[in-house]
Every structure is written in structure tokens, then in C-alpha cells.
Amino acid sequence: DAKTTQPPSMDCAEGRAANLPCNHSTISGNEYVYWYRQIHSQGPQYIIHGLKNNETNEMASLIITEDRKSSTLILPHATLRDTAVYYCIVRGGSNYKLTFGKGTLLTVNP
Amino acid sequence: GAGVSQTPSNKVTEKGKYVELRCDPISGHTALYWYRQSLGQGPEFLIYFQGTGAADDSGLPNDRFFAVRPEGSVSTLKIQRTERGDSAVYLCASSQGSGDEQFFGPGTRLTVL
After folding, report:
1. Cβ B93–A43 below 8 Å, yes or no?
2. How high does pLDDT run on average in chain A?
3. ∠ at Cα B49 (B39, B63), nearest 5°?
4. B43 backbone φψ class: left, alpha, beta (φ>0; ψ -120 to 50)
5. Mutating which of B58, B104, B108, B109 best tests the A interface, going by the most A Cβ atoms within 10 A?
6. With bands split at pLDDT 50, 70 and 90, how would you rate the model's confidence at B74?
7. Sheet holding A9-13, edge to edge
8. Three-state DSSP state, A73
9. Chain B partners of A85 at a C-beta cutoff of 8 Å?
């Protein structure tokens, strides 16, 4: 699976949008972009995934660039409970493994 | 139903001892995964089960580590002759099929003294 690059940490004010970037310049055509997050002392939690098109669910939006070399996870109205480590993962369609990097620690401040 | 559960939540043992960590996946999920997470790192893949069989155990660090899933549901990760370097959070996840979204349990924090 392609490697991903994320900033180690970001801050966001409560109520504002949090935009978390991820670079995956070596992504292949059949590889998906997945986002998970891990709140302190809990297991990772699935957020969203996409292939080419932008995706939205009740938790977040995923914007994938046209060349698919980067993506942005958007939390539209961040709350204190969104403070967590966010992992961007590239995964082939038939690949069962999740390969986690170090992720981005998002801190939402009051 | 309930999510993935893992027991115990914490395990403290002495170097050289044997430990067993248990995972109860979501009912009906055929795929089960074990990961290990060291402090400050993301989870690392250990082993993947499809049904009762270990389809990929390439992430197990050495032969002191073994995992079973005899009836295709509950899984046990077994560590023999524990070492201080085995201290980590051991995470279990399950999914409906092998390419589907993985649901993680809360993990077992293992401390080897």
C-alpha cells in the first residue's frame, strides 16, 4: 500500500472546521483512502473512506484531489470530543491490512 | 449488538510468564485481526483470521506469539515467555468481510515487569 504523510499535530478552535491534510503521492488506481481516529485510551474508530469522489457522512467529509495524490478530512464543527489522533491510510481494495502511520494529533481548544 | 470486546483490559505480568488475551468480535463478523500498539506509535498488524484459519500471520514478531480462533468467533492471542519489549496495547478488530470496515475493541494493555 502507498505511504501517507501527515502533519504530527494541529490545533483547532471549538466550533470551527478542522481540516486535516494527508499526502499519498504514490497511491495506485485501485487504492482507497481511509481515515480512522483514536481517542486517548480507546481503539481506533472508522471515520470515512473514498476512492476518487468526495464523500460525506454524519461524522466528516473527505475531499480527494483530482490527481488523488492528496486528501483532506474535514470535521465541519469541531467539538472538544474530537480531540484525537487521526490516521490517514491508503489501502488496496483486496487488502485486509490497515497500515497505520503516526497520524495527526488534533487538539480542539475551547 | 455490542461492539468488539477484549479481556482483560489490563494485564500485568512478570518477565518469562505466559499470557492469554481474549477478543470477542462483533457477532457475524467472519474476519478478525490483531494489532499491537506501542507508546507513541500507530497500531501494527499482527495476524488476520478469515473464519477459523489464520490467513496471514506475517506480523507476529516471533514464535513466542500465537493466536487461535477455533470456532470462528472468539480469538485468543497467546504470548509465551513474555519479555519487557512485549509491553504494549494489543488491539483486536473485526469486520464483516476481509475488505470491509474494521471495528476495533478497546484493547488490552499488557505490562511486562
Report:
1. yes
2. 94
3. 60
4. beta
5. B104
6. very high
7. A9-13, A104-109, A84-92, A31-38, A45-50
8. strand
9. 42
CB contact under 8 A, A102 and B40: yes
Q: In this complex, do A87 and B42 lie within 8 Å of one another by their Cβ atoms?
A: yes
User: Reduced to 3 states, what is the DSSP secondary structure of residue B32?
Assistant: strand
Residue A1: predicted pLDDT = 64
Angle subtended at Cα A100 by Cα A109 and Cα A17, rounded to the nearest 5 degrees = 30
Q: How far apart are CA A108 and CA A105, in angstroms?
A: 10
**CA gap A103, B10 in Å, rounded:** 25
Would you state the pLDDT for residue A103?
Answer: 96
Q: Which residues contact A52 (CB under 8 A, 6 or more apart)?
A: A64, A68
Q: Is the pLDDT of residue B2 over 60?
A: yes
DSSP-derived pairing of the beta strands A104-109 and A84-92: antiparallel
Residue tagged 505466559 (cell numbers): B18
* 3-state DSSP assignment of residue A80: helix
Considering chain B, what percentage of its residues have pLDDT values greater than 90?
A: 91
Q: Are A88 and A5 in contact (CB under 8 A)?
A: no
Are B45 and B33 a contacting pair, CB within 8 Å? Answer: yes
Evaluate whether A9 touches A85 at the Cβ level (below 8 Å): no
What's residue B100's pLDDT? 87
**Matching residue, cell 480527494:** A64
Which grid cell sits at B89?
496495547
